Amino acid sequence: MSTEVTTALSLATGVCNAASSLINVFSSYRQLRRKETIELKARIEAFKTSEYMRHSGELIRASVDEIERTYRHIESKNLTGTALKYAMGQFELLNEKLSDAIRSYHV
C-alpha cells in the first residue's frame, strides 16, 4: 500500500507542477497581451493627435488664404458704402473662423 500511496503522491505532485507551469505561462501571456494592448492604444492616440493637429493646421492655412483673398478683393474693388460694410462683415466672419481654428489647435 505504501508504494501505491507514494506513486499517487508522486503523480499528484507532477500534476500540481504542470498546473503551476500552465498558470505561469498563461499569466505571462496575459501580461504580454496587456502590455501590447497598452502600447497599441498609445500609438493610436498618438496617430489621432497627429491627424488632429495636421487637420487643424490645414484649417488655419485655408482660413489665412481665404482672408488674404478677401482682403485683396476688397482692396482691388475700392468698395464703399453698403458693399464695403458687407465685405467687412465677411472679413470679420473669416477672422472668427481663423480664431476658432487656432483655439482648437491649442486644445
Q: Give me the Rg, rounded.
A: 35 Å
Helix content: over 70%
Q: Main sheet?
A: none
Runs in which pLDDT lies below 50 for 5 or more consecutive residues are: none
Euclidean distance between termini CA atoms: 78 Å
The count of β-strands is 0
Strand content: under 5%
DSSP helical segment count: 2
Approximate shape: rod-shaped
| Average pLDDT metric | 85
SSE pattern, N- to C-terminal: HH
Structural class: mainly alpha
Task: Put the structure in a nutshell.
With 107 residues, this protein is an all-alpha fold. It has helices spanning 2-77, 81-106. Helix 1 runs antiparallel to helix 2.
Strand and helix layout:
Elements: H1 2-77, H2 81-106
Helix pairs in contact: 1-2
Structural notes for this entry:
The structure is a single chain. With 107 residues, the chain is mostly helical. It is built from 2 helices and no strands. It has helices at 2-77, 81-106. Helix 1 (2-77) packs antiparallel against helix 2 (81-106). The model has no long low-confidence stretch (mean pLDDT 85).
Any descriptors?
107 residues; mainly alpha; 2 helices
